[in-house]
Amino acid sequence: MAQTLLDTARSTPLLLLGRRADPDSERGTICPGDVPAPGDPALIERARAARAALGDDLFVLGHHYQRDEVIAFADTRGDSYKLAVDAAANGAPTIVFCGVHFMAETADILTPPGTRVVLPDLAAGCSMADMAEIGQVETAWADLRAAGCDRVVPLTYMNSTAAIKSFTGREGGAVCTSSNAERAMRWAFDNGDQILFLPDQHLGRNTAVLRLGLSLDDCVVYDPRRPGGGVTPEALRAAKVILWKGHCSVHGTFTAAHVALARARVPGVKVLVHPECRHEVVTRADLVGSTEFIIDTIRSAPPGSRWAVGTELNLVGRLAQEHPDQQVTFLNETVCFCATMNRIDLPHLVWALEELVAGRVPNRIVVDADTRRWARVALDRMLALPGA
Ligand code: 13P
Ligand code: SF4
Prior knowledge:
Blueprint: H1 5-11, H2 43-54, E1 58-63, H3 68-71, E2 76-78, H4 80-89, E3 94-98, H5 101-110, E4 116-118, H6 134-146, E5 152-157, H7 162-170, E6 174-176, H8 181-191, E7 194-198, H9 201-211, E8 219-222, H10 233-238, E9 241-244, H11 256-265, E10 270-273, H12 279-282, E11 287-288, H13 291-299, E12 306-310, H14 313-322, E13 327-330, H15 346-357, H16 369-383
Parallel strand pairs: 1-2, 1-3, 3-4, 5-6, 5-7, 7-9, 8-9, 10-11, 10-12, 12-13
Bound molecules: 1,3-dihydroxyacetonephosphate (13P) and iron/sulfur cluster.
């Protein structure tokens, strides 16, 4: 039976904001010790001192969407693909992951079992990853089987829980990121007739249509809140790509009107967007690509270039600072940070580092052995993609 909105709400623990009033649901503050006040003028010094004390035993990973105050302490920064590769390659016994929960899970899966992966705030989740729960995905898989779709390859975006990566590995599929979604789709069509792409419908559609040359009619959207996904068995059988009805709450805010406005306001502007944006946005943009692609594009552009960038605001702000010889603007006129990426702030980082210095491991992310085994298979398939 399809899950209702209420069922989903019931299965997600509430995040209470009182101070340890309910330790089960207060995911951000479950360790002993107080998170320092944001206004503490000694925060930077405290972070430096704790970082120095931890030396080579610690490796700090920072996603490009992190705040400036946090990314300054990252030993390596990257998009989710690069960070997965860097986590796997580094041998430090402790990793502090400045990013969101699914990324820290991935680091735990890709590192040797004893490695301690710490997420400075457990409430740093991802609204897109939360749009696909494992029970819903299993129901969808059963719906596909019942419809007679028996050569479907599941592809899950990195932005999904370890349980879904594990499901994907067990069912013959792979993980992908925004930088290798095209290669992953081509690999999937070499191994089956149809793709179940989750949880981001936009990355799936944009890749299928703009990179593989499929048509919009080749794609159907499976809505986990509706019986049978809201798609008839005939339509499921006819589709080349079955898109999960999920999206990014940050990239989903950009619209065709924003593109038109940017063009009207900034003569000669180039619109550069992430493929998590809606189809109407990417088809109107000049350039579309992953976070690393966006950074490289601006880095290699000549002075005087003008950009309207459709991705997370911490990154766009940093690009503007780093390239004062170019005009870098945000595609949306309203401020739009990723709220969960922003949960990792300097106070939480200082708290996590000082806990480690004190010999405690705060907010450790551990993926259980069975989940880990199959999730690793799906991640290894991604890492083995040609050209990856
Ligand atoms: P990438 O890091 O793969 O570009 O994904 C963007 C994103 O939204 C991460 O949460
Ligand atoms: Fe999730 Fe979007 Fe935030 Fe990335 S930017 S963590 S996909 S909500």
